[in-house]
Design goal:
This protein is of the alpha+beta class. It contains 12 helices and 10 strands.
C-alpha cells in the first residue's frame, strides 16, 4: 500500500546539519530570531518554558519532543524572570560542545538536545505547507528511543555519522507526524490522512498520479457523494482535491527533472500529461518557469 506521508518525507530529503546539548540553570532566557529552516528539540532532563511566535506558551518536560518545520522566532527560559539574551541562529558560531545558559556551575534545571536540519528538496516550501507549524509530542517511548540514538550519534565521532543522523531524522519526522493524524491537526496532509474516507482518495492519488482523476471518481473511492467529498477534502487538506493532485504531480515532476537521465516526454507521461508540450505549459504556469530551465538550474546546483 502506498504511504503518502513517507513519500512526502522522501521528497523532502532531510539531513541533519547541527545537533547539540543545551542546558540551563537558575535565571536564564534566550531569544532566537526567525530561522526559517526545520528544527527539533527534545527534553532529556528537567523542564523549561518555551514561547514560539504565533503559538501559546508551553512548558516542556522530560521526554517531550518538539518539531518546528519552518522555525519562527522563539524564547526559551527557566521559570524565574530573566532578561533574554538575543541569538541569531543564522550568524551565531556553531558550538559542538554543550551550551549552558544561566548559572554556569552545578546541576542544570533542564537539559535538552536541540537540532537543525535542511530539506534538500527545492520544493520544500510547498511540502512544508502541508505540515503543522508546531508539533509537540509528549510521553511516546518509540520517539524517546529514537532521540537517545540521535543524542548518542551526535556526541560520538564514528564513521558514517552524518549519514546515520540523516536517516534517524527521517524516521523521527515520520514517527512524529504519524502521531497527529486526526481532526485536531491543522488543515493539511496529516489531517487528511487522519480521515479514513479521505485517506483512501489520497492514497489512490499517490499510487497513480498519472491517472486522470476526477472529483467524482475520488468521491466514489471514498464512498462519499461528490459534494460531501469535495467539501470534506478541502476543509481537511486545505486545498480542493484536484489542486492537491496538481501540486503533488508538480512535486514529483520537479524531482524527476533534477535527474540527468530522463526525458521531458517521460516526465510528462509519469505525471499524467499526454505530451511534453502540454506538460511544459502546465509546469510553466504552476512553477513560473519552463521545465527545461528548471532542469538546467537544478543540475547546476548538484
Amino acid at each position: 500500500m502506498v504511504d503518502p506521508l513517507s513519500e512526502v518525507i522522501a521528497l523532502l530529503r532531510p539531513r541533519t546539519v547541527l545537533s547539540k546539548i543545551i542546558s540551563g540553570a537558575g535565571r536564564w532566557a534566550v531569544r532566537y530570531s526567525d530561522f526559517g529552516q526545520p528544527s527539533f528539540c527534545t527534553v532529556l532532563d528537567g523542564s523549561c518554558r518555551l514561547t514560539v511566535d504565533g503559538a501559546e506558551p508551553l512548558t516542556l518536560e522530560a521526554g517531550d519532543f518538539l518539531l518546528l518545520p519552518k522555525t519562527p522566532g522563539f524564547t526559551m527560559s527557566g521559570f524565574e524572570p530573566a532578561r533574554a539574551t538575543l541569538i541569531d541562529p543564522k550568524v551565531s558560531p556553531v558550538q559542538t560542545n554543550e551550551v549552558r545558559h544561566g548559572t554556569p556551575d552545578g546541576d542544570p534545571d533542564v537539559r535538552l538536545l536541540g537540532g537543525a536540519f535542511v530539506f534538500d528538496s527545492r520544493d520544500a516550501d510547498l511540502l512544508v505547507s502541508l505540515l503543522p507549524a508546531l508539533v509537540h509530542v509528549r510521553g511516546v517511548e518509540r520517539l524517546s528511543t529514537l532521540v537517545r540514538l540521535v543524542r548518542d550519534e551526535a556526541i560520538a565521532e564514528r564513521p558514517g555519522r552524518d549519514l546515520v543522523l540523516g536517516r534517524l531524522v527521517e524516521v523521527m519526522l515520520i514517527e512524529t507526524l504519524r502521531m497527529i493524524q486526526d481532526e485536531t491537526a491543522p488543515a493539511g496532509l496529516l489531517r487528511g490522512l487522519g480521515d479514513a474516507r479521505l485517506a483512501v482518495a489520497i492514497r489512490e492519488m499517490h499510487a497513480d498520479p498519472a491517472h486522470a482523476w476526477t472529483v467524482e471518481e475520488l468521491a466514489r473511492k471514498s464512498a462519499l457523494s461528490r459534494s460531501v467529498f469535495f467539501d470534506r477534502f478541502t476543509g481537511a487538506v486545505g486545498v480542493p482535491p484536484i489542486e492537491y493532485l496538481l501540486g503533488w504531480r508538480m512535486a514529483i515532476a520537479k524531482d524527476l527533472l533534477r535527474q540527468q537521465n530522463i526525458s521531458l516526454a517521460e516526465v510528462a507521461e509519469r505525471v499524467g500529461y499526454s505530451s511534453a508540450s502540454t506538460f511544459s505549459t502546465a509546469f510553466s504556469r504552476h512553477v513560473g518557469q519552463p521545465p527545461s530551465r528548471f532542469a538546467r538550474e537544478g543540475s547546476s546546483q548538484v
